[in-house]
């Protein structure tokens, strides 16, 4: 015979309501009482019927997370931090990879994935604000990133322009005057690449350094693209004394290409990235980069989503939050 909540309540010496509160992560429960209930659950082998519970309460205690590419180190690390932040509030995270496909991004807003979750953390790359607004429904949604900045939506992002400006200023202060930028997206002005390129140009202007379009190398944000961009610059004869990869994997690809070409880093060419992924610390030489406040992004985005769920955040317009950043000065660009 299946173990019931009544069995757990009797074993723990508490009411049925108390067992329900523990199962639903009700925060105002004495630790000793919560422990007794959890011990009884473990001893009896009780398994909650989550489907029935969600039908009764209208809540699943699950948050949805849609990212474009979980193989990208930044997204993988961010997903881990989001899961940990959600767990501290008694929530689990259901992850969907969209591959930046418009159909997949739209499907994440409706259908089974949305039904299984109480709220959504979303990084759209291929669909627009109106498409999202038309399908978002009544459940709360928090945007991550810069693809869509719209007053209708809550948003948690980073200071891309300011951070890129600070990093470029650091390279300039180190005597670098021919700073190549790899991973630019020429057609983009408001997205991540556009904002970081804008910050780079602002730093040049403030230092009175000329802007040279020949130093801007477009490309996808992958290691091989970073290596290819630097190879192209070297083969073309364009002179440069620093490389700013618009994310860390680009910079790591650039670092690899420079080293196999016999270019000394940082003596001949300094290299810097953006994101401060774990790999940056262990590169050889270790990578100078921007730490964009990933822990803060995770904590604040989960908190904002839960505030919407609980009704603690009632602003009709979207709440926009920017995390802080720090420069991580390491061997590749001291």
H/E topology pattern: HHHHEHEHHEHEEHEHEHEHEHEHEE
Find the count of extended strands (DSSP E, 2+ residues).
12
| Side-by-side strand order of the widest sheet | 2-1-3-4-5-11
Low-confidence stretches: none
Backbone shape:
elongated
State the major sheet: 6 strands, parallel
Q: Judging by the overall fold, what is the CATH architecture of the largest domain?
A: 3-Layer(aba) Sandwich
CATH class of the largest domain: Alpha Beta
In whole angstroms, the N-to-C terminal distance is 67 Å
The CATH topology of the largest domain is given as Rossmann fold
Structural class: alpha/beta
Number of domains: 3
Mean pLDDT: 91
Strand content: 15-25%
Protein name: LacI family transcriptional regulator
Pfam family, one: LacI
Keywords: DNA-binding, Transcription, Transcription regulation
Organism: Pseudarthrobacter enclensis
Please give a structural write-up.
With 334 residues, the protein is α/β, with parallel strands linked by helices. It has three domains: 5-48, 434 Repressor (Amino-terminal Domain), CATH 1.10.260.40; 62-158 and 294-324, Rossmann fold (3-Layer(aba) Sandwich); 160-291, Rossmann fold. Helix content is 45%, strand content 15%. Helix 10 (192-207) links the parallel strand 6 and strand 7 (216-218). The protein is elongated and about 80 Å long. One of its GO terms (molecular function) is transcription cis-regulatory region binding. Residues 3-57 form the HTH lacI-type domain.
